[in-house]
Design brief:
Strand order of the largest sheet: 1-4-5-2
Structural class: alpha+beta
Order of helices and strands: HEEHEEEEHEEHEEEHEHHHHEHEE
Number of strands: 15
Number of helices: 10
Largest sheet: 4 strands, mixed
Shape: elongated
Distance between the termini: 51 Å
Length: about 400
C-alpha cells in the first residue's frame, strides 16, 4: 500500500477497512498478535486501520483489529534477549520447508511441511490440480456411460428481444435447437419462433411454434439427453403459446457423489466441460470458464474426448482423497484406534519402514507423509504415518547417523 493510500485511510471520520479473509489484508497491516509473534516483535503505535474476520480462542467469530506496521514501534526486547528466546523456542518454525525463506511470522504446517504464504499458495494450487485430475477420471467414466447407449446431445441458443423502455425483460423471439445422437449424427436442427405473430424482430425463416414443438418431440422424445442451454425455458415458452413439447425423462442419472471431504463439484454438462478442461486462472488460481463449444456436434466431440481422457496430469493424491481414505474404518474394524508414528533418521529409513508396514497392511491407505527435514535433529528427516494401535504403539525413532 502506498503512502498516499495510507494517508487516505488516515483521514478523520473515515471508516476502517473490512476484510473477509486474511489473504486480502495488505502486507503492511498486521494484528497485535502478529506483531507480538514476529521474530523481531513490534507493538501498535497508531489507531486501528481496519478489521478482518477471524475467530477467538473459543472458536467464536470475531473481528480482528489491524494496525499499520509503519505506525508501530519495536518492543523493548533487545537483540540478545531475542537471540536467547530463539535458542529456547523449539515449537516455532519460521523457515519455509520448500523455499527456505526466513519468514518474520511463525509458519503453519501442511502435511508435514511448514510453508510460507507463497509456498502455501503454490501447494493449494497443486492440490487443486490433483483434484482436477481425479475429477477428470470420474468425468471420463460419466462420458463413457453416456455414449454407450442411445443419447441425444442437445445444444440450445435463444434470441432475446430488446427490453421494454422501462427495462423489463420481454419474451424471447426465437430459439435454435440442435441435437446429434451418440455417434455424432445430426437428428435435429430447427429455428423456432417463440414470439406472437405480431411481434417484430423474430427471424422470418423461423418455424411456427406448433411445428417446432412437433419437431422437438419427434427427435428427442424417449431419449436420454445431455443439454447445453435453456431447453426447459424454450419448452415452457412453447407451452405458454399452446404447443407443449412433452419429452419424458430429461437426463441420465448423475454419477455417484463425492465424499464429504472432497470438493462439491457441480455436475451440469457445462461444469463438467470446464472441469475436464481444467484450466486455472494464473492470477487467482480459480477454475476458468472455457469458451463454449458452440454447436451440438462440437459438444459431442468434447464428450468423446472426455470419454477417451487418460489419467494424465499432476501426480499425487489430493487432500480430500487422503482424508476420505483416512476416514474409512481401519482394516474393516469399526472403532479401531489410530496411532501416528514419526520416524526420525535417514530418509531411506522412513521409506523402508513405510514399505514394510504397508506390505503387512498395518498402515492406513495414503497416510504416509514425508520425508521432511527434522527440526530437532540437524541433517535428519522425519516420515509420518498412521497405523492401528494393536500393531503400532508410540513414536518410533531411528537413531542412526544421517547417511548410515
Amino acid at each position: 500500500m502506498t503512502d498516499q493510500q495510507l494517508t487516505q485511510k488516515q483521514e478523520p471520520g473515515a471508516a476502517p477497512a473490512w476484510y473477509a479473509r486474511w489473504n486480502q489484508v495488505p502486507w503492511d497491516w498486521a494484528s497485535k498478535t502478529q506483531m507480538a509473534t514476529a521474530d523481531l516483535p513490534r507493538e501498535p503505535g497508531g489507531p486501528v486501520r481496519g478489521y478482518v474476520a477471524g475467530r477467538d480462542f473459543r472458536s467464536r467469530e470475531t473481528a480482528v483489529p489491524l494496525y499499520a506496521v509503519a505506525e508501530s514501534k519495536p518492543t523493548r526486547a533487545s537483540g540478545g534477549q531475542l537471540a536467547s528466546a530463539d535458542a529456547r523456542r523449539t515449537a516455532t518454525v519460521r523457515m519455509c520447508t520448500d523455499c527456505g525463506a526466513n519468514c518474520q511470522l511463525p509458519l503453519q504446517q501442511r502435511q508435514g511441511r511448514h510453508l510460507c504464504p507463497m509456498c502455501w499458495r503454490i501447494a493449494t494450487v497443486v492440490d487443486f490440480q490433483i483434484e482436477l485430475r481425479e475429477r477428470r477420471a470420474e468425468n471420463a467414466a460419466w462420458a463413457r456411460e453416456l455414449l454407450a447407449g442411445a443419447l441425444a446431445v442437445v445444444w440450445v441458443e435463444v434470441l432475446d428481444a430488446e427490453p421494454t423502455p422501462a427495462g423489463r425483460k420481454r419474451a424471447p423471439l426465437a430459439a435454435r435447437v440442435q441435437a446429434v445422437d451418440e455417434k455424432g449424427r445430426r437428428i435435429l436442427d430447427v429455428l423456432i419462433r417463440l414470439a406472437g405473430p405480431r411481434t417484430q424482430g423474430a427471424p422470418a425463416e423461423a418455424l411456427p411454434p406448433g411445428e417446432g414443438a412437433e419437431r422437438i418431440v419427434a427427435a428427442l422424445a424417449g431419449l436420454r439427453r445431455v443439454v447445453w442451454g435453456p431447453l426447459t425455458a424454450v419448452r415452457e415458452r412453447l407451452a405458454a403459446l399452446g404447443h407443449p413439447a412433452a419429452l419424458g425423462p430429461q437426463q441420465p442419472e448423475p454419477a455417484a457423489g463425492w465424499s464429504q471431504h472432497r470438493r462439491n463439484w457441480p455436475d451440469s454438462v457445462a461444469d463438467r466441460y470446464a472441469q475436464w478442461r481444467g484450466e486455472l486462472d494464473p492470477a487467482t488460481g480459480e477454475l476458468r470458464t472455457p469458451w463454449p463449444p458452440g454447436t451440438a456436434d462440437r459438444l459431442w466431440l468434447c464428450l468423446t474426448r472426455m470419454a477417451d481422457a487418460a489419467d494424465e496430469g499432476r501426480p499425487g493424491v489430493s487432500r480430500g482423497a487422503r482424508r476420505e481414505a483416512q476416514d474409512q474404518p481401519l482394516y474393516g474394524v469399526v472403532g479401531a484406534c489410530e496411532v501416528r508414528v514419526a520416524v526420525t533418521g535417514p530418509a531411506a529409513a522412513g521409506d523402508r519402514l513405510a514399505e514394510l508396514l504397508t506390505a503387512q497392511r498395518v498402515l492406513q491407505p495414503l497416510s504416509v507423509v514425508g520425508p521432511v527435514p527434522s527440526r530437532e535433529v540437524p541433517g535428519a528427516c522425519v516420515t509420518y504415518m498412521v497405523g492401528g494401535s494393536d500393531v503400532l504403539v508410540g513414536q518410533a525413532v531411528i537413531d542412526n547417523e544421517p547417511g548410515t
